[in-house]
Amino acid sequence: MKTLSQRLDEYLALRRAMGFDLSFDERVLRKFVNYGDEIGEHLISTALFLDWKENYGSADDNTWSHRLGMVRRFAFWLAEHDGQTEIPSSQLVAGRYRRRVPYIYAPKQIADIVAEAGRLPSPYGLRAALWQTLFGLIAVTGMRVNEALSLNQHDVDLNRAVLVVRNSKNGGDRQLPFNKDTANRLASYAHLRDRLIEHQTQRFFIKEDGEPAGDCGARYNFAQVSRNVGLRSPQSFNRHGHGPRIHDLRHSFAVHTILDWFRDGRDIECEMYKLSTYLGHSEPKHTFWYIEAVPELMQLAAARAEQRVLEGAS
After folding, report:
1. Domain Tyr recombinase: where (predicted)?
2. Least CB-packed of 94, 181, 190, 199 within 10 Å?
């Protein structure tokens, strides 16, 4: 009989072949199946989920509702292969997953994060160059973390100053232009990478051991940098702690871009559709959400609407 871990490998391989980005889901599900393997369970059941929930750690109901959804999707697939699989009820957790209010970094905070990443210690300096370049790239392009980590070397065209993002969250490809300063920083990292690493994968962002940089490493190093600049409190046992996330760099890019449009007097609705395409959103409503989520943008939008009403009445 296959273990839950082996079944998960099959499930993830199938969904990735369909174009899904499952990096976050995999981290959660891997811990779930590892727990099941450790206690000798080969099947998903309501009892297993509740036992895992009891022993996994503290989190609010909204978070557990989100985790339950991941387990249920895995269980639905597994039930097609093993009729003894029990699909946990969606009512096991009372909470409902809500989109988290973004933390918007001030420009100085972003500069501090990028500068501090450049001081991360390593024998040959590649660790500092890697994470400084990655964090800076996300901040100036609004890419998702895993989109940046998934870039291959041929996806980064330094001559044309264009990135090609392939198989993004919504399954499509898109091109992102970048400026000369970003091109210089990407080229500087690539030069150091090629000088230090003889045998490489095709990924653009590579660690000192020659392996591709991963999601867990990105979040660990971002947490360390955030503590160093005072955005997170010190933590014991290498815990990440709580505070602004690396994904908030993407939110900050979007919000600062929209703020600039308001200040420049641009047609916000027209520009938002462009930004939606640039960010790789499946629907424009996911981009317009920033106006509702950020008080300053909401105030600017309300003031713009009020001005239009006054102009129409005059």
Report:
1. 100-304
2. 199
What is the C-alpha to C-alpha distance for residues 164 and 152, in angstroms, rounded to an integer? 9
The pairs formed by 115-122 with CB atoms below 8 angstroms and a separation of 24 or more are 116/225, 116/228, 116/229, 117/221, 117/225, 119/228, 120/221, 120/224, 120/225, 122/208
**Residue 310 CB-half CA count within 13 A:** 6
**Is 281 annotated as catalytic?**
yes
What lies within 8 Å, CB to CB, of 117 at 6+ separation is 128, 131, 132, 135, 136, 221, 225
46: which 2 tokens? 């309501």
119 is catalytic: no
| Percent of the chain's residues with pLDDT above 90 | 54
Tens digits of residue pLDDT in 61-97: 888 888 998 899 899 888 888 888 999 998 888 766 5
What is this structure's pTM?
0.69
Domain edges within the chain = 4-79, 107-228, 248-313
Exactly one of 53, 185, 247, 251 is catalytic; name it.
247
**Of 53, 232, 250, 251, which is the active-site residue?**
250
For 186-224, what is each residue's pLDDT tens digit?
999 999 999 999 877 899 999 999 999 999 999 999 999
Which one is catalytic: 105, 189, 278, 290? 290
User: 201 to each of 109, 129, 135, 219, how far by Cα in Å?
Assistant: 33, 18, 21, 21
Given 7, 185, 232, 281, which residue is catalytic? 281
Residue from 31, 169, 174, 286 carrying the catalytic annotation: 169
Which of 53, 127, 144, 185 is an active site residue?
A: 144
Query: Which CATH number fits the domain 107-228, given the four candidates 1.10.443.10, 1.10.286.20, 1.20.1510.10, 3.40.50.2300?
Result: 1.10.443.10
Q: Are 143 and 174 in contact (CB under 8 A)?
A: no
Any catalytic annotation for residue 97?
no
